[in-house]
Amino acid sequence: MDLVLKMRILIVFLLITFFYCGRISAQDALLLPNDSEFQHAVNEPGEVAGQNDSLDCQNRWNHLTIISDSRIDDLLAIHKEECLRKKGIDGYRVQIFQGSMDEAYRVKARFLSTYPDFPEKNVHVKFLTPDFRVRIGDFRNRSQAINLKYKIITDFPNPFIVEDIIEFPEIGR
Question: How far is Cα 159 from Cα 123, in angstroms, rounded to an integer?
Fold first, then answer.
């Protein structure tokens, strides 16, 4: 009786495996290209692999069609308008001072003299009621701001990272 039960379980397992594998291979067959470009890309006997690969890729990928929901384009347009309205994008800066206007500009000058390689356009003095704040950098992610924080911590004690609207990054540099 025990042997019969084991045989039945084995048969059920084999049937499930057979149907599952058959289903996978049928799905994979749908993914295989049947066009002539694919057949042309397959190496003929005696042909060196990779001989015409760059030409085939250039011919095959002259254009790219992205099929997506039209609502995605609407969301991208809304995001673009919001960034233009804010005159920047969400990002991070390192704040090194908060206090009076005169002292803020002195701290900015001291920072630029201590770190002459740092671009002046990335050192910002902002007035947020009731104080002026000196914030450094235009970072897209927090890890970049953390790197700067630990670099300047010896010269400017107690820097901290703040979320801010940063300027649009320069593209192509």
Answer: 14
Q: Measured between alpha carbons, how far is residue 141 from residues 3, 5, 81, 93, 113 in Å? A: 63, 60, 21, 9, 26
CA-CA distance, 10 to 7, in Å (whole number)?
A: 5
pLDDT category of residue 15 using cuts at 50, 70 and 90: confident
Is residue 54 situated within a structural domain?
Answer: no
pLDDT score of 56: 53
Whether residue 50 is contained in a domain is answered as: no
Give residue 114's Cα distance to chain centre: 33
CATH at 158: 3.30.70.1070
Q: Nearest-CA neighbor of 57 among 41, 45, 43?
A: 41
Cis preceding-peptide flag for 130 (omega within 30 of 0): yes
Structurally, how many domains does the chain consist of?
2
The residue among 151, 173, 77, 68 whose CA lies nearest residue 136 is: 151
Residue 21 has pLDDT above 70, yes or no: no
The parent domain of residue 18 ranges over 1-30
Q: Whole-angstrom distance between the N-terminal and C-terminal Cα of the chain?
A: 76
